[in-house]
Design a protein that fits this description.
By secondary structure, this protein is mainly alpha-helical. It has six helices and no strands. The protein has a single domain, classed as Receptor-associated Protein (Up-down Bundle), CATH 1.20.81. The relative contact order is 0.10.
Amino acid sequence: YCQTLGTLLKSGVDLKTSLEISRYVVVNQLFIKKLDQLFIDVNNKGVPLSAAMARIDYFPEYVRHVVSIGEEAARVDELLEKVAVRMQEEVNTLLEALTSLLQPVLILILGGAVGFIALAVLLPMLNMSQILQ
């Protein structure tokens, strides 16, 4: 969302239109409702973007601070793009950590499944050999 909003603003699209268009890249229904409230606050009530972000309480605190600084420096577009890069890096780090935790668990599960199948095949053979003796 931040990447799209920043790109639109950098391209010269006004804030109102950028907020409307950026809403369509979001699939989370709860976030869409929050963005609708953000749009109303910014466009109808004249609330600054950073304050509107704080009011909906969905964006991380550092995003609100960066947007606030961007509003003061008239560089919201650039800073939103930088925020988007940072958020993507955080997601990538989280996914890497999750993947590294899941790998041993999956190996244990697959090893258990292979062991179960091996026992299911070998136990009847052992029982048959004991019966024949």
